[in-house]
Amino acid sequence: MAELWDVYDVNRAPTGRTHVRGEPLAPGDYHLVGDVWTVNFENKVLLTQRHPSKPKGLMWECTGGAIQAGESSLCGAVRELREETGLRADPENMYLIHSIRLKDRFVDTYAVRMNFALPQVVLDEQETVQAILVDWEELLALWAAGKLCPESRFPLYRSALVSFLKQF
């Protein structure tokens, strides 16, 4: 069955229409994406490596993906985290740290702190091939080396992610 997205206008107002994933969006139409930076109680950040067949294959990233029709950004981000890593986050512990409008999407970036270890991560083999936990310096080194995506947006929410990490 085809995955459906809700369609939004340039001001993020719902249009009442849906869109089939994989088909081009019409000019002026937008959909929602939710990204999640997951941090464990040792202040290590979870990264997954993209499947080689995907765009930007083998780059490291936080968890995320398209929000399905009928979902809120928050609920979709929680679902993406569960589907891609097997980790179950409490929506009340998810913090919106950044939101941006891009060419055809609005991206909401969340951060969550959870008690987990790497052996608990169960990867979706169609999405990712590996998971690692990194400290802040290792995360910055991956970004500086051009191995972290989305490379262009990371500087926009870097300070918000730092603020989130400093809470603990």
TrEMBL record:
Keyword GTP-binding: no
CDD domains tied to this protein: NUDIX_Hydrolase
Family assignment from sequence similarity: Belongs to the Nudix hydrolase family.
Origin: domain of life: Bacteria
All copies of domain Nudix hydrolase, residue ranges: 29-162
Keywords: Hydrolase
Name of the protein described by the UniProt record: NUDIX domain-containing protein
PANTHER family: ADP-RIBOSE PYROPHOSPHATASE, DIHYDRONEOPTERIN TRIPHOSPHATE DIPHOSPHATASE
Species classification: Bacteria, Bacillati, Bacillota, Clostridia, Eubacteriales
